[in-house]
Structure formats: C-alpha cells, structure tokens
Recover the amino acids of this structure.
C-alpha cells in the first residue's frame, strides 16, 4: 500500500491551494486516488493557509494530513508549526528566501530553495509556489513532471491561459534547481 | 461514462443537481457552502435556469415551495444557522407533500457558532427539526463522489415520495476536492399529477396546501403520511459495512467522521483487534437492521460523531441497548483524528472504557 501525504503551508495569497491542486491533479492523471483539502475561512485573506493533499494507490480514508510524508513550508510560522509532525524519513521543502532558520530535525531530508527570491528575480513574483513545487516533484519519487502540461491546462482557468507558459517555466525552474 | 475531474464537494452538489434536471436554485450565502450558490450563479443563466440570491433564507425556502408546487425540480442550500431559518419552510413542504432538495453543509454551533465543519445538526435533520409530525429523507455523503450521487438520489427519492430530501454534509466535504464523475439523469422519473401546471380548462384544479382546520381530516393526512414513511423505511435504507462480519467492536460513523473511523478500523485490525465499521448513508431512515444484526456478535459499539453525541441515541435504539455504546467525539468545528478513534477502540476492546 503506497500513500503519499503532502502538507502545503504558508500565507494566504502565496498560491498554497493552487499548488496543492496541481499535485492532486497530477495524481489523478496518473490514475491514483487523490484528495485535496484546504484550510478555509478568514485565513484565505492573509493569515496562514494550508492544504492537505493525499495521493494513494488505495481508497483514501481521512483527507486530513496530520503526519505528512512531505511538508512544503512557505513561511516561518508554518515550519514552526509542522516541522515536528513530519514522519521520520519524510521530506521538508523550505522556501529559504522567507525562512531564515534551518530545520532542526535530523531524521528527515530537507531541501532549501529560495523560491520567492527566484520568482522575484524572474519577474514572476506570484509563482514561488510553483517553483518550490517543481523542486518537490524532482525529489519525491512518487511524483512526476511528465504530465505537467496536461495538468496545468486543466487547472489554469480559461481566462488566464496566458499564464500557462510562466507556470510551466516556474515548475521547470524549481525542478532544475540544484 | 465521462472523465473524472477534480471538484470541490460543494461544486459537485451543484453540478449533479443541474445534471439531474434541476433548473431552479434559491439561496443565500453562508460559509462553508457558498460554492454551491457561486457555481449555480455561473451555470444557471447559461442553461436557461434560474439562480436567485434571495433576500434571506426564509425567502429562499418559500421560493422553493413555489417552484416545487409546479412540479419542477428545485433546491436550496445553506449551512447550519441558515438551515434553522429555513426550518419553517421545510415543515410547510412536508405538510404540502412537496418534493425538494435541501442541502446543509454543516458548521459548528449552536447559534452562529463557527465556520469549521461539524455534524451537530443530526437531531435537527433526522428528528424533524421544525414543527409538526414529519420526516425528511436524510442522506449523508462521505466523499465528493457521494456529494454528487446522493444529490441525484435525493431528487429521485423526493419526487418518488413527495418529501424533502436533505443532504447532510459538513464543511470538510464541501471544501475538499476529489475526483468525481457526474452522470446525466432524467428529471422526469416520476409523474406529478398533483402539480400546479394550469388546468387548461381540461381538469379539476389541483390544490397544494398544508392547512387543515378540521382535526379529524388533519389526523387522516398525518396517518397517511406516516404510512408513506413506513414504505420509505422499508425500502430506502442505505449503509456501508466494512469488516463487520467478524467484528468484536463495531464503530458507527457517517460522513467525514466515517472516513476518519475507517482509518482507525484499519489501524486496529493491524494491531489484531477485530474492529468493523457501519456507515449509515441514510440517516433517516436509519439502518437499524444491520446494527441490530451486528449486535449479535459485537461486544460493544462506538459512535464517532462531530457533536456532543446525537446519533448515538439511534445506535442504542437500533440495538435495543443490548450492548454498551460509547461515544468518541469532537465538537465546535474540530474533527476527530484516526488516533483518537483508535485509542477508543483499544480502550473499549480492553473492556476499560468508561
């Protein structure tokens, strides 16, 4: 039984929910069972936002990720809150442009990527979420970049098709980041 | 069959209703069900339907009464405090024997409560909830797919029995996305000779009414309605059983709690504890028989709920109090964790639960 529990966390407005949707759709296209659960309410308007994504070979029970295999932390409070919830042997992705401290755990794999800085430098400041997602796809063997074009064409809304290419570029940038 | 798409539970309800021929939606925004109305507001104008944001929940439910009287499929949706406001109209729908679909994407209460998910409107939904002797058919989805399929089933049952079908969901199911496939179903599964469609001077006029000033006549009406309820109880019970056959401990949970409980049952099995799950899909009519049957071999029951213990009473009645029934719950917008449920299963299995 293979189940991947991903928790995205950051500020409202960073595109936490959108990246979660990207990963969930990728699982769906790969023929997996998937669920996507956002935090909802006032936090959508600027507080902390998080999003549970589960990708599994089996029917998914609770859609709430309490012990993530993969944590994507896009701000300090999120890392503080969830670092200790990650399963031993899990992976933590840190936006090192926004989070100054290092991960204290030694039993997890940690990937630092200054995705917000890269996004700003590339002139796509709203796509730090997709850059860090690209890095995650690279490092998590259960995920794949193969279907990226199809997935993005499904989740980028019809009136924002002009953003398709920059999203692809952002994911690719994160994927290729060393 | 179509392609599976990722959809929020609230959107799945709306799309499923449209694909079941519902062309009239009346509502008033409230978190966490607002996506139902938002989706309807986008789609209805494009397909010749009516989306109307009423001035209040009370107005919305009365618009539902109006459309239903004409025999058209109609729905409204809200969340807990809004459903309380609609209660009066729901009783009128019952008294007029009108079909309608009412969706409650529950949040914590009482009062304005909070906006996080809950199941604390179980009593309100299953025991009437408004004045008078009546029942709603209450359907409890546990996945986005069921948000869609039970919406369509709800319309079908409402038409068949001339009753209100209520979808009793919660904020989690409304907000989460899962793959879903939504079928097109006919809106004309049932003839509605009682509907107010204009006589064309060719027939006696129909009357839709809930006022009976002669008590003997009102009594007959109520007797007749309860004969119908008996048929519903006989024929329309739906539930899911999971590993119940050889279970010592039977967990009972509906909706999102059942998903959490299923994880816990799997964890318990991995520890060698024979746990099983009965998930009522219809909360009214309640699946009494499978629970009664489970009581023949289960030594105890655990009701997992997001409230202070409401369904637990129906579990106790169903098994006629022949086995202890324990409560495992969170409330106020909190969701039980699989670990919490597992802990309870272990405790009860050891015979030590208080």
């Amino acid at each position: 039984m293979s189940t991947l529990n991903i928790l995205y966390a950051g500020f409202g407005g960073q595109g936490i929910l959108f990246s979660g949707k990207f990963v969930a759709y990728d699982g769906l296209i790969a023929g997996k069972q998937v669920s996507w659960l956002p935090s909802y309410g006032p936090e959508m308007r600027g507080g902390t936002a998080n999003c549970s994504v589960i990708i599994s070979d089996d029917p998914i029970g609770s859609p709430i990720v309490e012990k993530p295999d993969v944590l994507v932390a896009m701000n300090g409070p999120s890392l503080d809150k969830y670092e200790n919830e990650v399963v031993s042997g899990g992976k933590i992705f840190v936006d090192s442009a926004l989070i100054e401290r290092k991960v204290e755990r030694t039993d997890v794999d940690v990937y630092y990527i200054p995705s917000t800085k890269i996004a700003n430098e590339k002139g796509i400041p709203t796509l730090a979420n997709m850059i860090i997602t690209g890095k995650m796809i690279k490092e998590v063997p259960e995920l794949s970049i193969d279907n990226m074009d199809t997935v993005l064409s499904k989740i980028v809304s019809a009136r924002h098709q002009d953003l398709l290419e920059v999203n692809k570029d952002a994911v690719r940038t994160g994927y290729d980041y060393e | 069959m179509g392609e599976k798409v990722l959809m929020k539970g609230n959107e799945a309800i709306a799309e499923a209703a449209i694909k079941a021929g519902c062309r009239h939606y009346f509502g008033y925004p409230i978190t966490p069900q607002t996506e139902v109305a938002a989706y309807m507001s986008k789609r209805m104008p494009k397909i010749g339907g009516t989306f109307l944001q009423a001035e209040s929940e009370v107005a919305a439910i009365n618009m539902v009464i109006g459309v239903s009287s004409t025999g058209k499929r109609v729905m409204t949706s809200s969340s807990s405090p809004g459903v309380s406001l609609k209660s009066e109209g729901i009783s009128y729908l019952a008294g007029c024997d009108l079909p309608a679909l009412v969706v409650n994407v529950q949040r914590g209460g009482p009062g304005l409560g909070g906006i996080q998910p809950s199941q604390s409107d179980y009593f309100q939904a299953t025991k009437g909830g408004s004045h008078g002797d009546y029942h709603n058919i209450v359907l409890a989805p546990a996945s986005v797919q069921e948000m869609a399929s039970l919406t369509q089933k709800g319309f079908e049952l409402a038409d068949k029995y001339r009753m209100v079908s209520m979808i009793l969901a919660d904020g989690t199911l409304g907000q989460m996305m899962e793959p879903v496939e939504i079928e097109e179903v006919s809106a004309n599964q049932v003839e509605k000779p009682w509907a107010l469609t204009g006589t064309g001077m060719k027939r006696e006029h129909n009357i839709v009414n809930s006022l009976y000033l002669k008590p003997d006549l009102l009594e007959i009406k109520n007797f007749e309605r309860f004969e119908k309820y008996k048929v519903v109880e006989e024929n329309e019970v739906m539930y899911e059983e999971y590993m119940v056959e050889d279970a010592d401990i039977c967990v009972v949970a509906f909706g999102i709690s059942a998903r959490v409980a299923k994880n816990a049952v799997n964890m318990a099995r991995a520890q060698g504890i024979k746990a099983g799950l009965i998930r009522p899909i219809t909360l009214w009519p309640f699946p009494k028989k499978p629970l009664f049957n489970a009581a023949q071999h289960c030594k105890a029951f655990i009701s997992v709920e997001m409230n202070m213990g409401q369904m637990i009473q129906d579990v106790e009645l169903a098994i006629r109090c022949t086995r202890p029934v324990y409560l495992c719950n969170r409330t106020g917008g909190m969701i039980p964790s699989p670990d919490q449920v597992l802990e309870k299963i272990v405790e009860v299995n050891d015979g030590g639960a208080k």
Remarks:
- Chain B has a mean pLDDT of 96.
- Residues 215-235 of chain B form the longest helix (21 residues).
